[in-house]
Each structure stands twice: as C-alpha cells, then as structure tokens.
C-alpha cells in the first residue's frame, strides 16, 4: 500500500468557524485538550476544568474525553513514532492540528482497543468538526494504513524511552542510573491508583466498602471508580485523597501533639490534615485563595482544625518561632507524571533551575522562624535532584546552625529502599512496583542546633 503523502495542504483553519458551531463530543473535547496542553502549555487538569463543553457531557463521556487525552499524552512518543512511520515525508508545521487528530486516532487504535472502523471514522468526523475537512481523506488513509500494523509496531517499540523527553531521561539516568531511569519511565505507562489516607477513627468496614488494601506505609489503596465525592466514606470524612508517597514526609516531624507547626505551601491540605490529626496546632499557609478554600473545605469535612493563612511564604512570619515546619515547596512535579502525563511535555530543564532557586529562597526564609532544636521537613514531589538534595545541600553548606537529621529505617516502616546514603527520603515511581508503585517524592529532615546554654 503506498504511503499517504505527508503534505496536509490547504488552510488548516479552513472551516473552523463552521466546525465550532457543532456541539462538543468527547473526541472534539479531547482534541481541544491536546491543543491546550501541547500548543498553549496549559496543564491538562486546568484545560479540562475550563472547557465549556465538559459540563454538558454525561459522566461516561466526560471520563472518556479525559482518558483519551491523558492516554494520548502518556503515549505521545510512541504515537508520534507510528505516525512518522506511516508518512512518506514529515508533516509540515502548519499541519500541527491535523497531527493532533492523527494522535487521537492512533491512541484509540492501539491503546484504547477501539475497533478500527470506529477509530478511523470518528477521526474523519473530527476533521469535519474542527474545521479540517480538506484533510479528511489524508487522515483516513494514514489511520487505515496504521490499523493493519499498529499493534505489531507498538510491540517492537521501546515504550519507556519513546514516551520520556530526552532531558528527563538524561537527568534520571545521571541521578539514579540507567536501570532505575528505565523502571521510572516504565512506571509512568500505567495510570496511578487511587490512594487514601484514613481518619484514625474510620470504621473497620471501610476497607471492604472501598475495595481497598492497606499498603506497608499505612495508606489505603482503592480499586473504587467514579467521582470522589460519591465514594464510600467521603461524606462522613473517613479519608482524604493523598498518594502513598505524599503521606510519608509529615510523619518525619515525629510526635507533634500540642506543638505549634507551620505547614508552608499547605493547600489543598493533605499534610495539614495529617498534622492536625496527630494533635498539632497547625498554621497552614498558602498564597492561593482558591486552593486555601479547598483546604478549609477538606478540614471541615474531616472534622479537623487548623489556622489557615493566605500569604506568600517567601515573606510570611509567624508571631513567634514555631516548634516544627513542614515545607512542601512548589516544584516541577515530575514525580507525579503517572497522574499527570502532561507534565512530561510541559516542563523544561530551565524551569527546574528557576524553581530550585525559588525553593532555596523559601527554605532559607522558613529556617529563620524555627525554634532552637526544632525540626524542619523539606519535601518536593519532583524527581529532579536540583529541586531536592541540590537545594538542601546548598543550604546546609552555608548554614552551620542547621544540621541534617537522617531519616532511618524506623521512620519508613523498614522500607530502607526509600532512603538515600545521606539519610533523605527518595521515593521513585517504581518503588513498591508489585503493589502499584508510588509518586516520586523527596524529603529531608533538618534541625536547628539547640543554642548553647551559658554556664
Ligand atoms: C505541592 S502543592 C502543596 C501540597 C500540600 N502541601 C498538600 O500536602 O496538600 C504547593 C502549594 O504551594 C503553594 N505556593 C506556591 N508558591 C507559594 C508561595 N510563595 N507562598 C505560599 N504558597 C505557595 C501553591 O499555591 C500550592 O498550593
């Protein structure tokens, strides 16, 4: 079969206005979401929340639109390699939107087990809906060709490498070694499970009602599906959503009952809830009013209390020094690619470098209001060493009053594979792989040396 000509031709925007009048379908929405992420660098969740057509879909179609766009992003490298294989010459830049239609079509053919005729016909339809009618025969020819060979092509691909941007692959290989890098990238091919942190008074039947198992870290891992507020135990505040790795760092502050703890960069409040549940007097600080509102809603539902403050952590000061600090800095979030496959394509090495300097500034400032002898836990859901040990080691090197308090086996329930040689926490998405993995996370525990008492 001759290869379809790679030249898309015609005006890519052609009858776009005619297409825009048609009602949204799950596939037109998935197309818009892909465009928002890849052409406008908008996070997928944000694009999904803001798309006016999403609210008009029923629950099933909404879930399909989200799943189709997320799977296309998760498998983008493989999908693009298949498209390139099917073309006689590269698609010109002006046909970028046609490539999105092909991407969604290939994703359905290969990764969503959509029958070939449905994947091809709906992609041709998408050309019509989104103003690319002139390209419909081209899309039809490419997808028909791939329908016959895509499964064999996919089986021969190096999925882990193709779906990982080169800068991330190089960074993870250098930081963790080639074998771990490959294991991390392979973990990203699967969607993350639903993890819940239970309220300590949650009733014993909760696990059964949620179809959950308890991980060695204490987190409940559920197989339940559907909207979170409709899951058993949500309304009565029996749990909150929190990845297993994200639930570890707050425990490093130790026994916090009755202590004043500043939870910095706190929203939506997963760690605030843990600290409040442990009996701390928590001041939760975040600069986003909307996210702080979610934190307050979450605490109310859980029957927990904390003081919440809307402020910039770079300048905020408590009225008096605090006994402990949890600093969960804003970051590239490359540890959460399983949940947010768009992150792999949205972030860059330059952004990591700029985030690391913000993180260092926040850490240095937070240390100024720690009580003598107090602990600070610094954590970040990034796999990039610049945002983890890079920040902590730079601060330790210039602050003789601050020492690292190594995290040990007892702090991580014996899961020593989660500890670095320096005594920091380093969770990789491939850890606990046999149980479904975890988000990537880094944490270090620091202590302000007690001031020497005068004789
Ligand atoms: C990784 S999230 C925190 C997650 C939270 N600790 C939890 O466990 O649910 C980072 C948060 O930092 C907040 N943030 C970013 N920069 C900030 C700043 N300079 N001051 C205060 N909050 C900030 C963001 O609004 C966001 O809510």
Description:
This protein folds into two domains: 16-157, NusB-like (N-utilizing Substance Protein B Homolog, Chain A), CATH 1.10.940; 248-448, Rossmann fold (3-Layer(aba) Sandwich). Helices cover 41% and strands 13% of the residues. The chain is built from 17 helices and twelve strands. Strands 5, 6, 7, 8, 9, 10, 11 and 12 form an eight-stranded mixed beta sheet that branches. The N and C termini lie far apart (91 Å). The structure holds S-adenosylmethionine. S-adenosylmethionine (SAM) is lined by residues 265-271, 285-288, 291, 312-314, 328, 330. This is MFS transporter. One of its GO terms (molecular function) is RNA binding. Residues 156-449 form the SAM-dependent MTase RsmB/NOP-type domain.
First-to-last CA distance = 91 Å
Sheet-strand content, in percent, reads: 5-15%
Number of strands: 12
The figure for the number of domains is: 2
Poorly predicted ranges: 1-20
Task: Assign the structural class, choosing from mainly alpha, mainly beta, alpha/beta, alpha+beta, or little secondary structure.
Answer: alpha/beta
Unique bound compounds: S-adenosylmethionine
Report the sheet with the most strands, covering strand number, pairing sense and barrel closure: 8 strands, mixed
CATH superfamily of the largest domain: Vaccinia Virus protein VP39
Radius of gyration: 24 Å
CATH architecture of the largest domain: 3-Layer(aba) Sandwich
CATH fold descriptor of the largest domain: Rossmann fold
The share of residues in helices is: 40-55%
CATH classification, class level of the largest domain: Alpha Beta
Mean pLDDT rating: 92
Order of helices and strands: HHHHHHHHHHHEHEEEEHEHEEHHEHEEE
Gross geometry = globular
Q: Count of DSSP helices? A: 17
Protein name: MFS transporter
Region (Disordered): 1-23
Biased composition (Low complexity): 14-23
Keywords: Methyltransferase, RNA-binding, S-adenosyl-L-methionine, Transferase
């Amino acid at each position: 079969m001759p290869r379809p000509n790679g030249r898309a031709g015609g005006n890519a925007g052609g009858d776009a206005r005619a297409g825009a009048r048609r009602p949204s379908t799950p596939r037109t929405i998935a197309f818009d979401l892909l465009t928002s992420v890849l052409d406008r660098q908008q996070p997928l969740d944000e694009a999904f929340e803001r798309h006016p057509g999403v609210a008009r879909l029923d629950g099933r179609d909404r879930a399909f639109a989200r799943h189709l766009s997320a799977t296309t992003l998760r498998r983008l490298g493989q999908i693009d390699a298949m498209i390139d294989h099917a073309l006689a010459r590269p698609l010109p830049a002006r046909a970028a939107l046609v490539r999105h239609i092909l991407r969604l079509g290939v994703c359905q053919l290969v990764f969503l087990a959509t029958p070939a005729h449905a994947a091809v016909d709906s992609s041709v339809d998408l050309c019509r809906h989104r103003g690319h009618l002139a390209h419909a025969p081209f899309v039809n020819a490419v997808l028909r060709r791939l329908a016959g060979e895509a499964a064999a092509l996919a089986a021969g691909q190096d999925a882990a490498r193709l779906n990982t941007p080169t800068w991330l692959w190089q960074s993870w290989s250098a930081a963790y070694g080639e074998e771990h890098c490959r294991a991390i990238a392979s973990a990203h091919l699967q969607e993350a499970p639903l993890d819940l942190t239970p309220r300590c008074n949650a009733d014993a039947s909760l696990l059964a009602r949620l179809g959950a198992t308890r991980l060695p870290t204490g987190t409940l891992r559920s197989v339940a599906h559907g909207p979170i507020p409709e899951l058993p135990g949500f309304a009565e505040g029996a749990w909150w959503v929190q990845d297993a790795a994200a639930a570890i760092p707050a425990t490093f502050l130790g026994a916090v009952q009755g202590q004043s703890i500043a939870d910095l960069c706190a929203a939506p409040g997963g760690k605030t809830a843990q600290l409040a549940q442990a009996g701390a007097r928590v001041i939760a600080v975040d600069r986003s009013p909307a996210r702080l509102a979610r934190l307050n809603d979450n605490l109310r539902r859980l029957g927990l209390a904390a003081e919440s403050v809307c402020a910039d952590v770079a300048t905020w000061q408590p009225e008096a020094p605090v006994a402990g600090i949890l600093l969960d800095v804003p970051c590239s979030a490359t540890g959460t690619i399983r949940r947010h496959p768009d992150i792999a394509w949205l972030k860059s090495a330059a952004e990591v470098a700029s985030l690391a300097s913000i993180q260092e500034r926040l850490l240095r400032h937070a240390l100024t209001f720690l009580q003598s002898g107090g602990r600070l836990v610094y954590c970040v859901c990034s796999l990039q060493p610049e945002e983890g040990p890079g920040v902590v080691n730079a601060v330790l090197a210039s602050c003789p009053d601050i020492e690292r308090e190594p995290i040990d086996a007892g702090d991580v329930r014996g899961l020593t594979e989660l500890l670095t040689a320096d005594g920091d926490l380093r969770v990789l998405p491939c850890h606990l792989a046999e149980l479904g993995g975890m988000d990537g996370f880094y944490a270090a525990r620091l202590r302000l040396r007690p001031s020497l008492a005068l004789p």
